[in-house]
Specification:
Length: 441
């Protein structure tokens, strides 16, 4: 039988680090990554035939659980009609219509293949519209791996403890202003000093790539006020939150509580989507009001393109996923997340492990250590101060018990609507021993 260890060794001989994306390598928790062979519902199965309850969900897309039969069927039917045309299709129009229906601030959108492309295009649009060079991002927010957005990024960059990345020129890095999250004074100061040169502020609608760090009340609203006052665009990155935290993503949650601003006065100029919007295949999108989006080629001067953009097989997965993601799905996602948050917290308390569970909608993560427990985590600096060694012990105890968590303390935990009571019970049963393991320094 091929073991995970053998598979990893073989992979490392031909693929840098043995993985196609860094955080899969278990770099911060150690050990052999599980090489997966199949996945169904809330479970994944590795090459050794071991089944795990999955709390990674492909890093977000699998809100219906893995390999939902109707999604698989739609993909198979689309594949039989042709894998890629390089021409427009009605299905991509239907997907665009579904997104526009759910997020009305999006009047026009362009389909791309990855979240990285979506945010890269959003930034280019902002620069093309404003004719300004600078972009403000927040430390700990991850917007994909385009050069300018890697500065002080979360996700794998946080996990590896890298300051940014080699290979990014100083000139490019110099066009990104990195500010502490949740710090409006810093935003005001940046705009006072450079306002006439700032094209856009890009922010995760709710940061979930340094662990989950919710925005302070009206942080997003103030970003809107400040950017509007200076003629800069506001970009919400909903690659992770979009269509996961609710039927309209974080947009819908913020719309329900407009933080003191009337109408859509808080609304961003551009929104990026990924993950759920492709239902597990490569689809992402950038959208916004028509007046903004019509700066894109072929209507406008801002160029953007993709051979596989709007790929018919990928679109079938995304469209079917969104059509199936009804209120019952979101209720179940919230229910499972609420239960896990409460039970993880209780188990860690019982074991005497200092921690803080933070959440934004159904996205949550645990910050480890006294400091996080006492003060909570509002910034990347605070997130990085957590005790990752506790998480490593917790992670491996859960894995040994058949529960696959994200292999980094800086990632959100992802539930699916397929996490039925059996799957949830398996997670809960694993918690006491894992909490004890976390407690053993
Ligand atoms: N933005 C956010 C908020 C993300 O979480 C991610 C991926 N985790 C991206 C952008 C990049 O998406 P992709 O990996 O599809 O390029």
């Amino acid at each position: 039988m091929l073991t995970n260890h053998d598979a990893f060794a073989r992979a490392a001989a031909v693929i840098p680090g043995g993985v196609s994306s860094p955080v899969r390598a278990y770099g911060s928790v150690g050990g052999d990554p599980r090489f997966l062979e199949s996945a169904r519902g809330p479970y994944v199965v590795d090459v050794e035939g071991r089944e795990y309850v999955d709390l990674v969900a492909s890093w977000g897309p699998a809100i219906l659980g893995h390999a939902h039969p109707e999604v698989v069927d739609a993909v198979q039917r689309a594949a039989a009609r042709g894998l890629s045309f390089g021409a427009p299709t009605v299905a991509e129009v239907e997907l665009a219509e579904e997104i526009v229906r759910r997020v009305p601030v999006v009047e026009r959108l362009r389909l791309v293949s990855t979240g990285t492309e979506a945010t890269m295009t959003a930034v280019r649009l902002a620069r093309g519209i404003t004719h300004r060079p600078l972009v403000v991002k927040f430390a700990g927010c991850y917007h994909g791996h385009s050069d300018g957005l890697l500065a002080a990024a979360g996700s794998g960059v946080a996990t590896a403890g890298l300051p940014g990345s080699a290979g990014v020129t100083e000139a490019t890095a110099g066009e990104t202003l990195v500010l502490p999250y949740n710090d409006l004074d810093a935003v005001q100061a940046a705009f006072s000093a450079h306002g006439h040169r700032i094209a856009a502020v890009i922010t995760e609608a709710q940061p979930a790539n340094m662990g989950v760090v919710p925005s302070l009340p009206d942080f997003n609203g103030e970003l809107r006020r400040i950017t509007a006052a200076h003629g800069a665009l506001l970009i919400w990155d909903e690659v992770l939150t979009g269509f996961r935290v609710g039927p309209s993503g974080w947009w819908g949650i913020e719309a329900a509580s407009p933080a003191g601003l009337p109408g859509w006065a808080w609304a961003p100029d551009l929104v990026t989507f990924g993950k759920v919007v492709g239902g597990g295949l490569p689809v992402a999108a950038v959208g916004g009001p028509a007046a903004v989006m019509e700066h894109l080629a072929p209507l406008g001067p801002v160029y953007q393109a993709g051979t596989l953009s709007g790929n018919p097989v990928a679109v079938a997965a995304g469209l079917t996923t969104l059509r199936l993601a009804d209120d019952a799905v979101y209720r179940r996602l919230d229910e499972v997340a609420d239960t896990l948050r409460a039970e993880v917290h209780a188990a860690l308390d019982r074991a005497g492990v200092p921690h803080r569970v933070q959440h934004a909608g159904n996205l949550f993560s645990v910050f480890w250590g006294e400091r996080a427990a006492e003060d909570g985590v509002l910034t990347y600096t605070q997130a990085k101060a957590q005790d990752t060694a506790s998480y490593t012990r917790f992670f491996h105890a859960m894995l040994d018990a058949g529960v696959a968590l994200p292999p980094s303390a800086f990632e959100a935990w992802f539930v699916t609507a397929a996490h039925d009571d059996t799957a949830v019970t398996r997670i809960l049963d694993a918690l006491p021993a894992a909490a004890d393991a976390a407690a053993r320094a």
